[in-house]
């Protein structure tokens, strides 16, 4: 880790200029869940859930067009925050005590998400503050060498990875994950979080098991699938999510896996409404 505290301001990295339309969202525990732990398991639950919460009053905290800088508090220090997203608010809709906005994560800042730790003492009660009055007080404490996440493999039934998280697993050869995936056959699900479309695939001995199959997705985005080739790599990197429907050990016959893959395609209707073309 590089110690940069008090030497570099957060905006030295972000270069945000129109501060009248930038808000900082400080995300803290709701008394039941720690947002940092939620983020480790599923960044989208924070960036497209917690951060877009509209309070009981239904006030328009984020006007459409606002740039939102999302931060979650680190558990061990109330003045340290993890940068999880920089996003543009694209839609606001009526909501009471629920998510009331849609947002678009800004890809130009993606290298900082989950890596930049910010130092700031938030003396105000509000968790949403206009950047114009406080941005100069947010300083970079550390830049982590990789995205902060829970390294432990959560079990096959609890796998839900964004493209960025899957890439971290593959690029850094996370031991728990590699051991769990490298000799495993599976039927898996890819979800396009921008539109809800699904793709069902399988990993058999022909594909050299699940680890090899998912490594191909990290490298190419589409994994050779015709239904995914029409999408840009940038779209896949931003919106794709990977999970496991069924897992099998290496001794199970490939035909069994393929039959289950076909069953899931029919059940989820991914040939009619998703990305499967076969």
TrEMBL record:
The record's section on PROSITE patterns has: GIY_YIG
Domain GIY-YIG: where? 183-277
Q: State the CDD domains in the record.
A: GIY-YIG_unchar_1 (cd10446)
InterPro entries given for it? GIY-YIG_endonuc, GIY-YIG_endonuc_sf
The superkingdom of the source organism is Bacteria
Q: What is this protein called?
A: GIY-YIG domain-containing protein
Q: Which organism is it from?
A: Levilactobacillus acidifarinae DSM 19394 = JCM 15949
